[in-house]
Amino acid sequence: MHKTTYDDLQETIYSKVLNNGLHVALLPRPEMSKVHCLFTTNYGSIDQHFIPLNKQDFIEVPHGVAHFLEHKMFEKEDGDVFADFGKQGASANAYTSFTKTAYLFSATNHIHNNVETLLDFVQEPYFTDETVEKEKGIIAQEIKMYDDDSEWQSFSGSIKSMYSKHPVNIDIAGTVQSITDITKEDLYTCYKTFYHPENMLFFMTGNFEPEEMMHFIEENQHSKSFPKAEKISRAYPDEPAEVHEKTKFIHMPVAVPKSVVGIKYIPVGNSPNQFVKQDVLQSMCLDYICSKNGPFYEELYNEEYIDNSFSYSATLEKNFGFSMISTNTHHPERFATKMKDCLMQVRTMEMGEETFETMKKKLIGEMVRNMNSLEYVANQYTHYHFLGIDFLTVHQIIEELTLEDLHLFVKRWIQEEHLATNIVCPK
Amino acid sequence: MSEAMETKSLNDLTVHLLPTKKFKTIQVVLKFRASLDEETITKRALLPYILRKGSTKYPSEKELQTKLDQLYGAVLSMDGAKKGNHHILSIRLEIPNEKYIPSASNTLTEGLELLNEIVFHPLLQDEGFNEEIFTREKNSLRNRIEAMIDDKMAYANLRLIDEMCAHEKYRLRVHGNEEHLQQVDRFELYTYYKNMLQNNLCDLYVVGDISSAELMKDIENIFPPIHTKTESLQTETEETVEIEVKEVIEQQDVQQAKLHIGYRTHCTYKDDAYFALQVFNGLFGGFPNSKLFMNVREKHSLAYYAASRLESLKGLLIIVSGIDGSDYKKARTIIEDQLLAMQNGDFTDEMMNETKEMIINQFLESLDNPTGMVEMNYHQVLGESSWPLDSFSEHIQQVTKEEVMNVANNIQEDTVYLLTSGGEGHA
Questions:
Q1: CB spacing of B72 vs A361 below 8 angstroms
Q2: Chain A neighbours among B 67-86 (CB < 8 Å)?
Q3: Are the C-beta atoms of B19 and B209 separated by less than 8 Å?
Q4: Helix (H, G, I), strand (E, B) or coil at A146
Q5: Which of A200, A207, A158 is nearest to A30 (CA)?
Q6: Whole-model pTM?
Q7: What are phi and psi of A312, to 5 degrees?
């Protein structure tokens, strides 16, 4: 077992790769009452074109399988896993993202039982034709709920306007139509390929004793057998650098229109270090551009192009990335034009050393602040782990960035053809 | 729980210090409390928008944000909330604890000074708030009120309360109303604000890894002596008892119908039966293994979500569900049957024990978060509880089946609200 201590954050991580390939990382926070566990497979909605375990040829599965599989994992021959967690005083949940499927619980009691339940239910699939059919009704309701959610429509519409080929442009849950095609066999195929321990991470943080817990997890894993792991071949289409549609409208009944300017960015280079630099620079630059003391906010606000809903989000993964600057506004087109103008100005802006130091300070402070949340730490550690990066060292990478790194990144990041506008408004 | 909570009155400001090593930040919260009142609610809704925009020393949002950035990305937030018959205006500042940032010093004292500056030295222009900010922020709040209809779940909740509490103060919407907003001027608003500072009950919370003695001195030095002529607060429940269940069906262009039902529990936070009510709610609809979820969603696949929650200071139980409009009658019957089942004691001791564990788990978890810790402690003050917070778990454990059945039998269905796209409850 490796023990890594991070002096500045005053934290220690205990980690180990078990014989079956499962990576386990434990971050004790003994002051807390609870424990938060996240068991994640490096498999998400974009992984729909791959070679199944022990096969030679690529296959394509229906849209929404990863999410459907996540739902079905909770159902077992003898009942529902939620009930098992409930009996042990835990609250359990799961989520599917573009690149990951994660199962989690948090609890303040019966920790060993809950850890065992989490490991066992994710490693023992049980799918039948009947239960698969029944789930279609529930997921159809979930999809319909998103149809009415203008926030979600704005988010997913923006991705669709940026990406033409890459499956990130498909909704994670699929469509009411696509999920009707899903079969029990599809679920087993995806399960066997992607839920191998070697493709997964078990992360735990909170109030527990690390040595003893590692031993407990190891015992549980040794009692199970898995087929030999193979390297998973996944295929993604070639995605052009430019956006798919420069301007896109979605008509739905909203009282206040929503306008988004998206920046498409596919990272360059292969090393984790190159990746993480682009990742933090993307966040830092967006924060600077959108900040209340940044170069544009005051004008945007006073001209009523934006209101208090003005915000940004940034995503960067191995083969895709995007940022969104969004607001509710009665002037959606004028906001978009203005915002794109501002972004193009940033390309040629000379940022001083002092501004850059404040940007760093703010991002590091934000990381420290977010570490209050065990959920945040679990999610971030997992996210960076699958990209080959240790999350608890990211703040050091921020410290090491130079002004030159920043200027180089901005020129590559902001380009006219990377920008797309998405507007949600009534007909 | 915090190591040693300390409460001290500084004139009429009640200071609550919650020292704990759980968090990597220090959170400081000021709370102003008044009775819900139609005449003041819109003003109280507008105040956070204006105070957040600047003060005498930091006359623009830009300057204020720069100060926050210097405090390592400290976060300032303000909001109004409805708690029973009270309105609470909260001003929160969260600062990364300098123990985790080697280059930082004096951040807490500076943070307290900043909070004092924002609350007690707002940006003025001849005996009123600054005109430009005032005009702009009136628009922001108007947009916020206007956009409420776009979040269907929140909108349905609001509409249910409108209908159910039509003759009670609790009907007042926390964002105020557009008519009053139109009428208010910046002089009148400032007059009200001065009045609020003089007459509202005021509490200050500080949570984090703090040293109490030193901090108390800082607070005494920084904040002005607060002398309030405390208004008499209306705490008695005023409720109208309806004999017949009111049914309201509203039509809008929605994909998924929202069925929300309001019940009167005739039991609030300070009542002895409160713990039994908590257990009731857990069994009925508070968790994923509750009756509502298991029957409406799992057994009949009628909904993506179906849950219940308590408004414990007001004595309401609210059910929320997202269904297909054509299933309205069926879903309503199933929901009403679940209450009957609860009243008849159709739940096992085992289910009850599990639910108790989940409630305790949820309670402890909420104390693993600084905002949760402040809110739970403040709830104790608002709810006039006679038991210490750390006895919560014990009280829950002692609840008997008979007590749960008793509270269930006191629960009365009041209003059924359906938001749907078709006529006659058909989607």
A1: yes
A2: 69-75
A3: yes
A4: helix
A5: A207
A6: 0.89
A7: -135, 160
| Residues B170 and B284 reside in one and the same domain | no
Span A164-216, pLDDT tens digits: 999 999 999 999 999 999 999 999 999 999 999 999 999 999 999 999 999 99
Q: Which residues of A touch B148 (CB under 8 A)?
A: 255
Average pLDDT over residues A77-99: 91
The pLDDT assigned to A391 comes to 96
Q: Are residues B170 and B314 in the same domain?
A: no
Residue B69 to residue A92, Cβ atoms within 8 A:
no
Specify the residue for token string 């003041």: B40
The domain total for chain B is: 2
Token digits of residue A186: 């599809």
Q: What is the mean pLDDT of each run of 10 residues along chain B (427 residues)?
A: 73 91 96 95 97 96 93 95 96 95 88 96 96 94 90 94 95 95 97 94 95 90 78 60 87 92 95 97 92 85 87 96 92 95 96 93 94 96 91 97 97 96 56
Q: What is the three-class DSSP state of B138?
A: helix
CA–CA dist A298, B61 (Å, integer): 8
**Nearest C-alpha neighbor of B341 from the set B270, B391, B409, B258:** B409
CATH number assigned to the domain comprising residue B346: 3.30.830.10
- The Cα of B240 is separated from the nearest Cα of chain A by a number of Å equal to 33
Query: Topology of A247-425 in CATH?
Result: Cytochrome Bc1 Complex; Chain A, domain 1 (3.30.830)
Asked whether residue B198 falls in the same domain as residue B343, the answer is no
User: Is the Cβ pair A92, B23 closer than 8 Å?
Assistant: no
Any idea which residue has 């990381």 for tokens? A367
- Pull the structure tokens for residue B89: 């205006």
Task: Identify residue A266 by its one-letter amino acid code.
Answer: I
* Distances in whole angstroms, Cα of residue B216 to Cα of each of A63, A248, B116, B213, B371: 59, 56, 14, 5, 20
pLDDT tens readout for residues A242-259: 999 999 999 998 989 999
CA dihedral A154, A157, A161, A165 (to 10 degrees): 150
Q: Which of residues 93-112 of B touch A (CB under 8 A)?
A: 94, 96-97, 99-102
| pLDDT score for B298 | 74
Would you call A9 exposed, middle or buried from its count of C-beta atoms within 10 A (0-12, 13-18, 19+)? middle
B177 and B250 assigned to the same domain: no
Separation of alpha carbons B183 and B193, rounded Å: 16
Q: Which amino acid is at B57?
A: K
> Cα(B404)–Cα(B343) distance, rounded to whole angstroms?
8
**Amino acid, single-letter form, for residue A214:** M
Q: For residue B49, what are its two tokens? A: 């928008």
Size of interface A-B (CB pairs under 8 A): 181
Q: Domain limits at B60? A: 6-222
* Pair (B211, B264) in one structural domain: no
Do B80 and B211 lie in a common domain? yes
| Separation CA B99–CA B76 (nearest Å) | 20
Angle between helices A403-413 and A353-370 (to 10 degrees): 80
Nearest CA in chain B to A359: B69
**A2-222 to CATH, choices 3.30.70.20, 3.40.109.10, 3.30.830.10, 2.60.120.10:** 3.30.830.10
User: Is residue A286 a contact partner of residue A312, using CB atoms and an 8 Å limit?
Assistant: yes
Q: Does residue B396 sit within a domain? A: yes
Instruction: State yes or no: pLDDT of A309 exceeds 80.
Output: yes
Chain A CB contacts of B301 under 8 Å are 134, 137-138, 141
pLDDT score, position B241: 65
Could you tell me where the DSSP H helices lie in A74-183?
Answer: 81-87, 111-123, 129-147, 150-162, 176-180
Answer for the pair B127, B190: CB distance below 8 angstroms, yes or no.
Answer: yes
CB contact under 8 A, A144 and B256: yes
In this structure, the answer to whether residues B296 and B217 fall within a common structural domain is no
Asked if A231 reaches chain B (Cβ–Cβ under 8 Å), the answer is no
